[in-house]
Amino acid sequence: MKIFIYLTLIISNLLLANISTAENGSKEMYIIKLNQEGMVHYKGEINGLRATSPLVTGAKKLDTKSNASIAYLQFLQDDLLQFKTTIESTLNRDLGKTLDYY
């Protein structure tokens, strides 16, 4: 299970959220895919953030401890936080616990 979650973090950029509907209070699960690629696929398209994809870096495998990977992960975390804040502001309520996959 731990390996699966780790791989999911690297391959995708997802937010899983349980959101209560205003009408009846029931909860619905939403899977939200953000525009950015996961670390294993990121080719360096964003100004100031170097590529992390082994296809671009020439590495045999993804180096999750490289400066480029750490910087890109921070970017993804900041982007997701901003997105969650926008959703909460729009809904005028807290999303509660979410599962975030980078």
SSE arrangement:
Layout: H1 2-11, E1 14-20, E2 27-33, H2 54-57, H3 67-91, E3 98-101
Antiparallel strand pairs: 1-2, 1-3
What labels would you give this structure?
three-stranded antiparallel β-sheet, 3 helices
Explain what the structure shows.
The structure is a single chain. This protein is of the alpha+beta class and 102 residues long. It has one domain (2-101). It has 3 helices and 3 strands. It has helices spanning 2-11, 54-57, 67-91; strands at 14-20, 27-33, 98-101. It has a 3-stranded antiparallel beta sheet. The longest helix is centred in the last third of the chain and has 25 residues, at 67-91. The model is unreliable at 1-11 (pLDDT under 50).
**Overall residue-averaged pLDDT value:** 78
Give a quick account of the main beta sheet: strands, pairing sense, barrel closure: 3 strands, antiparallel
Tally of strands: 3
Could you give the order of strands across the largest sheet? 2-1-3
Q: What's the helical proportion of residues?
A: 25-40%
Radius of gyration: 16 Å
Number of helices: 3
Number of domains: 1
The SS-based structural class is alpha+beta
SSE arrangement, N to C: HEEHHE
Strand content: 15-25%
The N- and C-terminal alpha carbons lie at a distance of 16 Å
Spans of 5+ residues with little confidence (pLDDT < 50)?
1-11
Describe the global form.
elongated
